[in-house]
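Q: Could you fold this chain for me?
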Amino acid sequence: MLSVGQRRLDAVTTPDVRGLEQLECTVLDDTASLATALRQCLMLAGYAHHADLRAWALKELEGYAAADELPSCRKVPAALEVAVDLNLPGQIIQGNTRRISPHQLPQHARDLGIGESAPIRQGVRELDVVVARGDRVVRLSPPGSAEYVL
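A: Sure. Below is the predicted structure, expressed as structure tokens.
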């Protein structure tokens, strides 16, 4: 027999409550992927008819479009580096990188926001692939940087 404070959750829970319980289990599971938790958020947002939560979870999962405003957690500090190829008599030295200051960039580049932060627009699925490669360094290019290199 159940006391007043207890209930059989499996008999009275709705899909949104079950979804919340599943999400909680996934968040607490060290082996679960972030993509799995985001997919569960999508389902929970659907059950709860919460358009903002659904839109956020979908962007986190699939990535942010260029026109989307990025949350601050997706703007990470990043040093600006340029790769310099030196052409010396009889030899070419490639891949020599050098850190530069944003103040060394043309004013137009600074006006576009190119500086020492990198926007992370990729979705969790794509970021999972980068992490799975096991690279210790991830190289990012600021938007529009290829044009300035030319």
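A (continued): Residues 9-62 form one domain.
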